[in-house]
Amino acid sequence: MSSASLHQALQEQFGFDQFKGNQEPIIKCLLAGKDTFVIKPTGGGKSLCYQLPAIISEGVAIIISPLIALMKNQVDLVRSYSSKDDVAHFLNSTLTKKEIREVHDDLLSGRTKMLYVAPETLTKQENLEFFSDLKLSFFAVDEAHCISEWGHDFRPEYRRLREMMTQINPDIPVIALTATATPKVQSDIIKNLGLKEPEIFISSFNRPNLYYEIQPKIKKDQTIKSIVRFIVQMKGKSGIIYTLNRKTTEELADMLMANGIKAVAYHAGLDSKLRAERQDLFLNEDVQVIVATIAFGMGIDKPDIRFVIHFNIPKSIENYYQETGRAGRDGLEGKCILYYSHKDVSKLEHLMRDKPLSEREVGAQLISETVAYSESGVCRRKILMSYFGEEYTEKNCGQCDNCLHPKEQVEAKDNVVKV
Ligand code: ADP
Ligand code: MG
């Protein structure tokens, strides 16, 4: 397809004048029938790389996406662009029998161009048979890092995708997309998804507008005071605070409220209605801060989050990058502050104690990399990018604590940490 007609489709279907980054060559590759592997940071516009081809191709694209909540969001977005409700559907465990029948009817009629499914949906034999009889355009595997134990969100069901795609239709191309760029995860994805001589598109992972800082975590009340001071100084700008456990989200949110900062807690222990309500409070800026476990954030598209604070050390550099990456999506200010203590490292290690040995080994390795990052005196950006296999050659990024205030290693001593 010519560039002119792709641009026309972009304008007509999505209302955008230009492709973002390398969307156009990616789309052309997929439309040429090749397996395509897209590695692009969060906010880079990965969805459009399969949505546009899906709309202009014959048949239905099957899009595999890990989170049910995310799926509905995406489908609503696509429908709002196209103003045709039957252009996209999802199939997952939340639908009634009647709704499923309606989706099937739309699929058979050829009106539907995109079908979002959870990997579980594909494991059901009746679905496999139904999909095998459909005219399909391609498979898109979103959040493809879920296939790898080295990624930040391993989902065992993803391991069965190749087998199921082969059963449904082995002859259509596959596009895999992720914001996870570590070489280990990449090769896991290619291998486990069985991508055939894929064309690989990797974008830079540098986020020049993000400022990175590590603070030693001293006594809990001092840390909270320091956080309160910081948030007050951010004057009403939105931010996320990540904590390791559910209880701390509630405690911290209460503390912030007591200090006149509007905050809510968010974690997987809350029922889905309450989670949705609190997420909306944050997205609509009825509260300034959401204090959350890592249950919050995947797929959240709020462009003006101005800070991400880690109250505890994250599980891996990858997690840290993803979580901080939710700040400053609009390209403007984004402050990322991590409070670091050895005690939190021990807590993390303790959480893994019941896991199988291989998982503990992977976990320990990931934690030790995060520790090295936290204690390093080297430019934070340089470390993050080298983690993703990129070289950052500037001497001074001007946007991290180590570049702005060269100093000795941050060492938070165990004996002063009381959490
Ligand atoms: P990712 O999945 O890579 O994190 P998304 O697909 O959610 O990113 O896209 C991020 C944002 O970029 C969305 O708000 C989307 O509408 C916007 N976007 C995508 N492509 C374009 C484009 N060509 N022009 C303008 N905005 C775009
Ligand atoms: Mg995405």
Word description of this protein:
Helix 2 (23-31) crosses helix 3 (46-56). The strands form two sheets. Strands 3-4-2-5-6-1-7 form a seven-stranded parallel sheet, with helices on both faces. Mean pLDDT is 91; it is low at 415-419. It has helices spanning 3-14, 23-31, 46-56, 68-82, 97-109, 119-123, 125-132, 161-168, 183-192, 220-233, 246-258, 272-283, 317-324, 342-351, 357-375, 380-387, 401-404; strands spanning 36-39, 60-64, 88-91, 114-117, 136-141, 174-178, 199-202, 210-216, 239-242, 263-266, 289-292, 307-310, 334-340. It has 17 helices and 13 strands. It is of the alpha/beta class and 419 residues long. Bound molecules: adenosine-5'-diphosphate (ADP) and magnesium ion. Magnesium ion is lined by residues 46-47, 142.
What characteristic shape results from the CA principal axes?
globular
In this entry the ligands are:
adenosine-5'-diphosphate, magnesium ion
Contiguous helical run count: 17
Strand order of the largest sheet: 3-4-2-5-6-1-7
Count of extended strands: 13
**Structural class by sheet pairing and helices:** alpha/beta
Low-confidence stretches: 415-419
Profile the largest sheet.
Answer: 7 strands, parallel
> What is the share of helical residues?
40-55%
Helix and strand element order: HHEHEHEHEHHEHEHEEHEHEHEEHEHHHH
State the distance separating the first and last CA atoms.
Answer: 59 Å
Radius of gyration: 22 Å
Could you tell me the mean pLDDT? Answer: 91
What portion of the residues fall into strands of 2 or more residues? 5-15%
